[in-house]
Amino acid sequence: MPLISINPQDTLPLVEQIVQGLAQLIDLQKIRTGSRLPSIRQFALEHQVSRFTVVQAYDRLVASGHLRSRKGSGFYVSQIATNVIKQGAEVSELDQAVDVLWVLKRYLHDESKHFQLGCGWLPADWLDANMIRRALRQVSREPASALVQYGRGQGYLPLRYALVQRLEEQGINASVEQVLTTNGVSHALDLIGRYFIRRGDIVLVDDPAYFNLYGCLQALGAKVIGIARRRDGPNIEQMTKILKQHKVTLFITSSLLQNPTGLCISPPIAFQLLSLANQFNFLIVDDDIYGDFHSEKGQHLAMLDQLQRVIHVSSFSKTISGSLRVGYIACDKKIAAELLNLKLLTCFTCSELNERIIYEILKEGLYRKHLNRLRKKLDIARDKTLQQLETLGIYSAIESTQGYFIWAKLPEHNGTTANAAAITTRALQHDMMLAPGNTFSLSPGISSYMRFNIAYFYQQPKAFELLQQLLTSS
To answer: Is residue 97 within 8 Å of 29, Cβ to Cβ?
Structure first.
């Protein structure tokens, strides 16, 4: 009996039909971990396709982590990662299936998906490739050694001076010794986590928060506790209660345009948070990767703390290029020195070539103009997207006025609130990638929420029609 349905008349290639069909069965755990798939010959006969087509499909599923190959034995379903730390709460099978790795693999491997409505970056045509080309031409004129040799462990010195200047504009006083470049914010968080976290340590995070953060902390052996994110910042009362009961190592948050809510920490909450950090002796990591999309001069935690207990991390991946992967850490000088040692041991250096490109963009004043253009486009896209979502009964859970995320609760249909994970799974069949709420949260009550990227909604009007169909059929 065939495992999946294959349509030879479909415009989607046969290999892709097999890959998507089997991946969905594995993701939903309809084929159990460790199960042996039909042999290449058997699958080809049962589904009336060539053996070569099956070989290609199986190889791709091995590459994506869905299958593993045993020489002389066949292909078996790999271990599927379950959702991170649900803290004893009951979670539906769909919520478990649509987990952190599930989302990451599809965003990074399913390039064919037409509607990328839930992803965490801007469309390619919103970013300025000509700005990068101009910087590339300038860098190409540098001496050959600058193009082929390893750079400094701390990062390209002129870029670090430029970052010090940018931090000063944000009210953060730092020396060049306090700035360390990284391969984006993910690398920065990994370095910080490796240095400070030991297995069993308690780490506090926003709830909801960036889904990859949970997986990263779990991999380091941390015990993760979510702190409810309110309109003005983390729930201070909840945090205080936890701090009185447990020794906490780190709190990871975002001062500006937190992912996925788009919220900012208010000055009163910021002062209370820093007071707790001093009282209970823990450090705060401020992830500022979306801060540059804020059109006003926002208030960073590091501006109030001046890098005493705050570790400030940011990147140009969202604003300039995800391919260049240039980020940085700004922190206390002693911590910076220790993180440099760890960076040298784990990755030696970052790409100085990429860092030189970013420096040229900053030096020529191109970055500010680029940000202004992006903010104006986002303002237009936000208004239009909010209006159209409201026609579907989807309302933003908070007042979204900055950035490019809308954190919204799905409407009720036939007396039942739609399940974001279920809709996300069905959306895959229509080449649509969504971002269900359960991947952003440690609590089960978030399953009816979803994060929308207004930039993709804005330029894909047919997405509204498809989303409406998915909502009414739930």
So the answer is: yes
CA distance 124 to 126: 5
Whether residue 375 is found in the same domain as residue 449: yes
- Give the range of the structural domain holding residue 212, as residue numbers without chain letter: 129-367
Per-residue pLDDT reduced to its tens digit, 77-128: 875 433 333 333 334 444 444 455 656 665 555 554 567 888 899 999 999 9
| Residues 76 and 67: beta-carbon distance below 8 Å | yes
- Confirm if 49 and 14 have CB atoms less than 8 A apart: yes
- Pair type for strands 179-182 and 327-330: antiparallel
The CATH number given to whatever domain includes residue 246 is 3.40.640.10
Q: Which residues pair with 207 in a beta bridge?
A: 228
Distance in angstroms (rounded) separating the CA atoms of residues 182 and 154: 9
25 in a domain, yes or no?
yes
Q: Does 87 fall in a domain?
A: no
Q: Tell me if the pTM is above 0.85.
A: no
C-alpha–C-alpha distance, residues 144 and 147, integer Å: 5
Number of structural domains in the chain: 3
User: Alpha helix locations (H) across 246-300?
Assistant: 267-280
Based on the fold, state whether residues 155 and 292 are members of the same structural domain. Answer: yes
Handedness of CA 126, 128, 129, 130 (dihedral sign): positive
